[in-house]
C-alpha cells in the first residue's frame, strides 16, 4: 500500500453518490477509506442497513439536506434533480483533496481552483445518456405523460452532468469501456484503474463437475432469461442459477428440467458452486463486471457476452492463455452455440491460467495503483504555479500529467 505523511495530513473528503446497498461501488469506497483513514465521507443520502456498514470502518458519513426528507429517502430515484441540487450544497471548502466515486451525481460537488478533485467514475449517468431508452423501457415509461416527465428530467440531468464535468481535475475510469464513455460524454481523457475484487474469498479448484453456473440480480439487462432459455436447447447439460429479482417469474417460466434455480444465496454458497462449475455463463453488458473475475479466481472459465468490461477481464480463445470465450448476441441461440464452442475448446483453458488472470484485479493492486496516481496528481497540483485563472492551472496540470496513465497502469 502506498502511504506517507503527506497523505495522512492533507485535508481530504471522499464523496459518493449515495449509500443504499453494498455492491461494487461500495467496495471501491471501502478501499479508499482504508487508504485515507483520516478523510471525511460525504454522500447525498445514507439509507444503508447497519449489517452492511462494515466497509465504512466506523465512519459516519456527512449527508445533504435530502437525508431529512422522508419522501426523498424512500423514493430517491424519482428525485434525481433534487439530489443533484443537494450535492451542490455540500460545503467542501475546508478540504484540499476531494476524491469522488461517481456513477451519477458525486462528481458534481462544487470545488475551487485551490482544491484538487479526482473522480473515480463507475460510469457517466447510464440512464441519462446512451442507455436512456433501455431504462425507460424497463421502467415502462415509453409513452404517456409520465414518460414525458421522465424524459424531461433526464434532459435536465444531461445538462447538469455535462456542466459539472468541468469541476473535475482528473478522471479515473473503472475500465477502458467506461473511459470511452467518459470521452464520448465529457470529451475528457481518463486513467483506467480497474476496481478491486475480493479474489482471496474465491479459492482455486482444478477438478470441475459437469454443470454450468450463472449468478446475477434478475433484472432485464442481465439477460438471465436468455441464459436459461439457451439451456432449454441443451437438455443434456445442467445449469444452476443463483439470484433473485423482478425477472424471477420470467426466468422460471422459460426454464427446462435441466435448470436448477436456487434464488438468492450467500457468498459461501456462490463461491462453492463457482469452484465446482464447469464454466460460468455471463450475458450482461457491464461497465466492469465483478462476477466473471470471481469465477476465474476459482479456476472456472467464463462464457461471456463480448461487450463492455468482460473484454478486459477475460482472455478469449485468441489469447496465449485463454480463460474463456465470447458470444456476440444476447440471445438464447448465440449463448447455446457458445456453450457448444466452449466444450470443443475447453482443453485449451487451464484453471491455473484463470486464477492467474483474476489476480490482476486484487484489492492490493487497486490500492497501489490508485494511491500512486492520487499522490502523483497531488505533487503536480501542489507544485503548479498559482496562475491567474483556474482554467490556466488545470491546463498546466493536464500537460504535466499527460503521461500518468501509462506510468501508473
Task: Explain what this protein looks like in three dimensions.
This protein is α/β, with parallel strands linked by helices and 409 residues long. The protein folds into 2 domains: 5-196 and 363-408, Rossmann fold (3-Layer(aba) Sandwich), CATH 3.40.50; 199-361, Glycogen Phosphorylase B (Rossmann fold, 3-Layer(aba) Sandwich). The protein has 17 helices and 13 strands. The protein has helices at residues 5-9, 24-35, 70-74, 80-88, 132-138, 144-164, 176-186, 224-232, 248-254, 267-276, 291-297, 310-313, 332-345, 351-358, 363-383, 390-400, 404-408, and strands at 12-16, 40-43, 62-63, 97-102, 116-121, 170-173, 190-192, 211-215, 238-242, 259-263, 279-282, 302-305, 324-327. A 7-stranded parallel sheet has the order 3-2-1-4-5-6-7, sandwiched between helices. A 6-stranded parallel sheet has the order 10-9-8-11-12-13, with helices on both faces. Strand 8 (211-215), helix 8 (224-232) and strand 9 (238-242) form a beta-alpha-beta unit. Helix 8 runs parallel beside helix 9, helix 8 crosses helix 13 (332-345) and helix 11 (291-297) packs across helix 14 (351-358). The longest helix has 21 residues, at 144-164. The two termini are 15 Å apart. Residues 1-6 have low confidence and may be disordered.
